[in-house]
Design brief:
Helices cover 42% and strands 20% of the residues. By secondary structure, it is of the alpha+beta class. A 4-stranded antiparallel beta sheet has the order 2-1-4-3. The longest helix is centred in the middle third of the chain and has 14 residues, at 44-57. It is globular, with a radius of gyration of 13 Å.
């Protein structure tokens, strides 16, 4: 587990590489994909955080969500003030507050 710093940029540098990751699917208890984070500009930071959470916690439960909020650094505060502006952080806020945990599936490039 990383030691989270003050900024998202600092934390991002500590996360495992997302090379070879095409996307991450978030799957509910019924097996339905409820969200997808693609490996594309503007989403790679979120992809890296969720990829890291999969490696450390396996499941996106309240404990994983709380840690993810710390890793997102200053973006978490912004998400609290502007709901909807950061959907991948909004999801962590909801799960940390008691929403149903999700399964994190990493889809490798070429699949």
């Amino acid at each position: 587990m990383i030691e989270s710093g003050a900024t998202f940029k600092d934390n991002l540098q500590q996360l495992p590489s997302i090379d070879g990751v095409q996307r991450i699917d978030l799957v509910n208890g019924m097996g339905a994909v409820v969200a997808c984070i693609e490996n594309q500009p503007g989403k790679q930071g979120s992809l890296a955080v969720y990829h890291y959470l999969k490696q450390v916690f396996d499941t996106l439960d309240a404990k994983a969500a709380e840690h993810g909020l710390v890793v997102f650094g200053e973006h978490t505060a912004d998400a609290r003030y502007r709901p909807g502006a950061h959907p991948n952080i909004d999801r962590l806020l909801a799960i940390a507050a008691g929403d149903t945990p999700l399964r994190i599936e990493v889809i490798a490039t070429g699949h």
